[in-house]
Amino acid sequence: MVSRLGVADISAARAGLDLFGAVFDEQATYARNQPDDAWLRGLLARDDFIFLTAREAGATVGALTAYV
């Protein structure tokens, strides 16, 4: 299932960031240095920011971010 994340989806956003770290071999950038919840909530609240995640059997298997 593909979902667009919103302000209540902090844990899903963190799972997406963890996936980026694994896929791009950039753990320090995406997984270990994640922003705090308040900053992430602010980003997810923006109309010009899109964060999509794909989940299968409870696991995040895809993610995409974009600015409009």
Concise account of the structure shown:
The protein is of the alpha+beta class. Helix content is 41%, strand content 29%. The model has no long low-confidence stretch (mean pLDDT 96).
Descriptive report:
The protein is α+β, with helices and mostly antiparallel strands. It has three helices and three strands, in the order βαααββ. The chain has a three-stranded antiparallel sheet with strand order 1-2-3, with helices on one face. Strand 2 and strand 3 form a beta hairpin. It is globular.
Record keyword descriptors for this entry:
3 helices; 3 strands; alpha+beta; 68 residues; three-stranded antiparallel β-sheet
Distance between the termini: 23 Å
Number of strands: 3
By DSSP (H or I, 4+ residues per run), the number of helices equals: 3
Tell me, rounded to a whole number, the average pLDDT.
Answer: 96
The portion of residues forming beta strands comes to 25-35%
Main sheet makeup: 3 strands, antiparallel
Strand arrangement across the biggest beta sheet: 1-2-3
> Secondary-structure element sequence?
EHHHEE
Q: Can you tell me the residue ranges where pLDDT is under 50 for at least 5 consecutive residues?
A: none
The whole-angstrom Rg is 11 Å
Helix- and strand-based class?
alpha+beta
What global shape is seen?
Answer: globular
Helix content: 40-55%
How does the SSE layout of this entry go?
Blueprint: E1 2-4, H1 10-23, H2 27-31, H3 37-45, E2 49-56, E3 59-67
Antiparallel strand pairs: 1-2, 2-3
